[in-house]
Amino acid sequence: MPQLTKSEIDQLLATPIIARLATVKPDGSPYIAPVWEFWDGKSMFIIPRGKSKFVEYIKSNPRVAISCADDINPDHSRVLLEGTIEIVEGPVRMEGFGLEIGTEMVQRYSGEAGLVYLAKTRDNLRYLLKLTPDKITSWRGEWHRRYAEDK
Questions:
Q1: What pLDDT digit, counting tens, does each position of 88-129 carry?
Q2: Which residue among 9, 71, 128, 136 sits deepest, i.e. has the most Cβ atoms within 10 Å of its Cβ?
Q3: pLDDT digits (tens, 9 = 90+) for 18-75
Q4: CATH code at 6-140
Q5: Which residues contact 92 (CB under 8 A, 6 or more apart)?
Q6: Tell me, what's the pLDDT at 149?
Q7: d(Cα 3, Cα 140) in Å, to the nearest integer?
Q8: Which residues of 110-149 are buried (b: 16+ CB within 10 A; e: fewer)?
């Protein structure tokens, strides 16, 4: 179960992989949302809609985990990011740095159709969230030896 290199993590997170954002609801139960992500090599950005439920959970408890998995390629690369997420801005209309990230994301995930979608929804309110992880765990392929049965 080898770890990914920094370069391999960057490459994986540059693909249109659906990230899973795990938050904690006020009652202590988990909440997971599939999200698009933007990785700049040290922080992950997410742009949820202004009424996304998980933003309210983040306001109460900003500790999150984000799981990114390649379920297509045979080595099944995985990256798990853990830390405290911050609300950079929002809810606001798409402009500035948020618009730059949003434009890159819609092109990567949806191509030209994404650009059309962004143009139509640019005035809708969104948040800009940033996770600079405290911990990054990555792996691919075979089982880790700790999972092997004793012989």
A1: 999 999 999 999 999 999 999 999 999 999 999 999 999 999
A2: 128
A3: 999 999 999 999 999 999 999 999 999 999 999 999 999 999 999 999 999 998 888 8
A4: 2.30.110.10
A5: 98, 125, 126, 127, 128
A6: 66
A7: 7
A8: eeeebeeebeeeeeeebbbbbbebeebebbbeeeeeeeee
Q: Which residue has the tokens 């983040």?
A: 58
The DSSP annotation for 110-146 comes to HHHHHHHHHHHHTTS-EEEEEE--SEEEEE-SSPPGG
User: What is the amino acid identity at position 135?
Assistant: K
CA distance 6 to 35: 22
Where in the chain are the domains?
6-140
